[in-house]
Amino acid sequence: MPPAKAGNPRLKSSAKNVPALEYIFHPRSIALVGAATDPVHWWINEYYIDPLVKFGYTGKVYPVNPKGGEAKGMKIYRSLAEIDGPIDHVISAIPARSCPDLVRECRDRGVKLVQFFSAGFAETGDPQGIAIQNEIVEIAKGSGMRLLGPNCMGLYCPNTKISFCFNYPQESGPIGLISQSGSNSTYVVRSAVVRGLRFSKIVSHGNACDINECDLLEYFTDDPDTKVIAAYIEGIKDGPRFRRALARAAATKPVVIYKGGFSEAGGRAAATHTGSLAGSYAAFESLLRQLGAIPVQSVGEMVDMLVAILHMKPPRGRNLCAVGNGGGGSVLATDEFERAGFRLPGIPPEVREHIRKLVPPAGSMTRNPIDAAPLMGIEQARLLAKTGLKDWEKGLWNARFQRGDGGMGDFVGALDDWPGLDFLVLHYCIDSVPGGIYSWQLTTGGGPLIVAAKESRLPVATVIHFIANEDSWLKSLKIQKLCIDCGFPLFLSMKGAARAIRRLMEFDRDHPGMVEKIQASLK
Amino acid sequence: MPPAKAGNPRLKSSAKNVPALEYIFHPRSIALVGAATDPVHWWINEYYIDPLVKFGYTGKVYPVNPKGGEAKGMKIYRSLAEIDGPIDHVISAIPARSCPDLVRECRDRGVKLVQFFSAGFAETGDPQGIAIQNEIVEIAKGSGMRLLGPNCMGLYCPNTKISFCFNYPQESGPIGLISQSGSNSTYVVRSAVVRGLRFSKIVSHGNACDINECDLLEYFTDDPDTKVIAAYIEGIKDGPRFRRALARAAATKPVVIYKGGFSEAGGRAAATHTGSLAGSYAAFESLLRQLGAIPVQSVGEMVDMLVAILHMKPPRGRNLCAVGNGGGGSVLATDEFERAGFRLPGIPPEVREHIRKLVPPAGSMTRNPIDAAPLMGIEQARLLAKTGLKDWEKGLWNARFQRGDGGMGDFVGALDDWPGLDFLVLHYCIDSVPGGIYSWQLTTGGGPLIVAAKESRLPVATVIHFIANEDSWLKSLKIQKLCIDCGFPLFLSMKGAARAIRRLMEFDRDHPGMVEKIQASLK
Fold this sequence. Notes:
Distance between the termini of chain A: 40 Å
CATH topology of the largest domain in chain A: Rossmann fold
Shape of chain A: elongated
Largest interface: A-B, 92 and 91 residues
Oligomer: homodimer
Number of helices of chain A: 20
Largest sheet of chain A: 6 strands, mixed
Number of domains of chain A: 3
Strand order of the largest sheet of chain A: 8-10-9-11-12-13
Structural class of chain A: alpha/beta
């Protein structure tokens, strides 16, 4: 099915190098067929109407339901026929059996993209569902109208103010996400947002009856707003084309791929979920590596990898120094990094002497990993004495912890003088404190080290971990944000950090300069 | 060093089978030497005074500091000499160099246990620190007074109202925890509490200059309040004794051991942290397995294992059915369970027919894993229609979802009729919902299935997962609590659930009846 001509005044379609699918992100109007007219089905409007209102989408929005009436002050149209003017994008939230008629109407009306929230198609495995899916494809064929899904969430594009979730970020970012699963796309976004990541576009494509993973890989390869591609894929429709599309994508940008349905039943689940043929995971993973993509096995690993690619300066070698609070966390930290193939060399005598001058009871600070809790305590007291509890936040930035002040600035300076050291891992355990958890205390405890590390010559990773419940989550948000604001990669587990940094180094070795160029473009 | 005679009227020392160390949990009085007299050092009182007040410890509490004065309405004694009456337990929070004098004074005063929060001993690796540690051991030798630490948090025993953290649970439970690291002990407790677990006693023993992991293993083996032993250990002081102690412990109760410091640098970290000789991890793990203990590699794994042992009925075989909301989560679920060696067999036709009668658009429910989102939606609507939004919580329990109501009760009944099925995994994804997250919605969505599963003949595991931020943590607390209230094991990741259940089955095979007996004793 060839892509439709854009014919859309919002899109400079005459511009060179506009990717074929670009126009689907620039609809002049959006109709939700199957909009809720009563409070029981409110959620469908929450998914597809609320985000447009909240993001400030400037096109026309048409809720459609034969019952008519009003939804949140908007007129509900009884049918597409009742709507005047062009309809570029239709979202279907009606039962599968009614979809063929809708697709016919859309085709005749000149709609450019129909996205199906509707499920009950090929993913059911039932002959009837498969037949309906084949029927809608058949109806659209040759018309130029594209189909997205069925059984998917659709499009998110903050630049053009469209989203299927009102609380996705309104600002744009460098990641293009392809997600065959709607629920995984939301889990990826929510997990990524707290780590400081943002997205250029997201497409949840479900059963992929028309627009599929190859179309989307090709699109994101050419999309200038997308610097890194992330994809959750359950099955591949066209092996040879996928291979070509991925090879070109991976030669252009980092591509992180999470393949679901690796196992016998997982494959069956994927079939049920989006009607995909899953294939063998081992074969797929080896194909990914061969083509230069980065395979991951969970949403958590995917987000860790994106954090590393976008915010971690690739280390030149495997020697790190870990600095944090608390012994249990230090032991864990080094276990995980050595498990991932890194080394924590002993501190050279001259560096150790320098550090010991900064902290009188330097007992716990003479080896690598460094339990810097004593120095953190001193710096916290100094910061609070200087700025007071009320102004500690301002103080944290103003103090700057530069060299020559006998504190964290000099501590970081001493580590800079360590020959052969390749990177620093700064970590802070939250639920290791046996008393109460206080947001200011966490930030003034770990903050001076993090702020001082901005001056380091070395790549830095930050790990805020040992978060055991909702209270420590909430209270650690400020120190998490501090890591992000300082431009460091923020990890929430030591294992995740170790694995992602190892793979970043492998990727950087195989794609020299690619990561550096992306990171420079984001500054 | 032989244990001191108890000589403590609070403890029926004449009773048979009282473990040797029992008396340390029954002090008549506790002195904190190095109590804070000013707001800068408030935290030391928060660690060691506040919990005694909050828990309602009925013995005497003596803050001690040469400066005197008052702390939170308590008199601060200038010295131990100023205190009348017996002092059973002294907590040292003074610098290492002052500790030998303190130990001498305690010995002469007839103190039974000195615990050292103080650090700066053998864990520093410095000759001076090692010398001071040797000196305090030498001073106490032969006196019958025991030393705990140095460089440790000390004792938690809710039954006798002592704790080193005011927000640890005040109610007792079946787990005895040995933790060489103070920070790990807090991380274990906070991670375990949200999963419904409670502790009989915790001992954080740091450098273990006197009371060591062998003493504690022997104690917890004989402690009737402790049904399961968990231990975080960095090093072993006496290999042959450890082997004997562990063999006896593991023959008596499940013993879950997390060994920190497995790697070269991890071992160095452990040495720095608690002055331990870490040894080879592989050798240690093989010893643990040989002796019947359960090795784990992180706090998270430890807590998953404890949850499984205490709340999961050991499945008879490897065939499971996974039921949840959302396709991405279902695919992940089955990938993780098959990776852990389980099987998700296809649904037999008669079971499928039964299920399909319950849900008209049963498309997504005809295979294993089952994406039960449609049925969950119907049950949610039915519950809300019956009880209203205001009373849904009461309704959730009152409705009971029994057989014959055409809903979740019959759905669970249909699964019960599945021959050869060994257990159920019920999972609920939180951050897969693209709209807002509402606590009532999560609970009424997943709740009916969970409550109905109480009637199942099959072992049940519950997994509340896809929790990406503090908001979804907070809002999922109610559905998490529902799983705990129903008596099901609560896991927060599918991978964690799969691994823990596999190891539970291995443990149950090797120790027939032990898990069942413990679970029966807790009802």
